[in-house]
Amino acid sequence: MLRRLALTAAAACLSALAAAPAATAAPAGPVAGATARAITPLPAPGGQPGHRLPGSRVRDRLTITVADSGSPAADGTHRLYCAPAGGTHASPQQACDRLDQLAADRRTPFAPVPATMMCTMQYGGPATAHITGVWRGQPVDATFRRTNGCEISRWGALEPVLPHTVG
């Protein structure tokens, strides 16, 4: 937030300097040894680290390794690319749409369950997943299991990035 405020203030100062009348400048005409330098505006701050500005083409790249999901087609290592959607993932467009939806809701899909979280003692099956890569400009290295209610919910929130499990 402080970085954004500083960048906004700097851009405003540069704009004001560019619009200042030439009467306060140095004497008219070329000055020996001087070179002309144009003042260019700073890019608009992007907010949070990794935030995509409208029209930007940052390509998310994720490697998703799934084991014991109950579906042989879902198990294995798959690549997911977003902006544009592609890769070896079974449903790249739906997976990228889900990640965009989570980002719009200001949720961090790869964050672990907090250690202090109270979770129900239930078993969601042996499925595991490991996701690595880059999402919204930030490195990702997340592990998913279905070992308790919190982890089951975390997995479910990331479907269809992660497969629907059987068993």
Number of helices: 3
Q: Which residues form runs of ≥5 with pLDDT under 50?
A: 1-52
Structural class: alpha+beta
Per DSSP, what share of the residues sits in E-state strands of 2 or more residues?
A: 15-25%
Question: What characteristic shape results from the CA principal axes?
Answer: globular
How is the quaternary structure best described? single chain
Described by strand count, sense and barrel closure, the largest sheet is:
5 strands, antiparallel
Strand order of the largest sheet: 3-2-1-4-5
SSE pattern: HEEEHEEH
Mean pLDDT: 77
> How many β strands by DSSP?
5
Roughly what percent helix? Answer: 10-25%
Structural features, described:
There is one protein chain. The radius of gyration is 24 Å and the shape is globular. Strands 3-2-1-4-5 form a 5-stranded antiparallel β-sheet, with helices on one face. It is α+β, with helices and mostly antiparallel strands and 167 residues long. The two termini are 45 Å apart. The protein has helices at residues 2-19, 92-104, 149-157, and strands at residues 60-67, 76-82, 86-87, 128-135, 138-145.
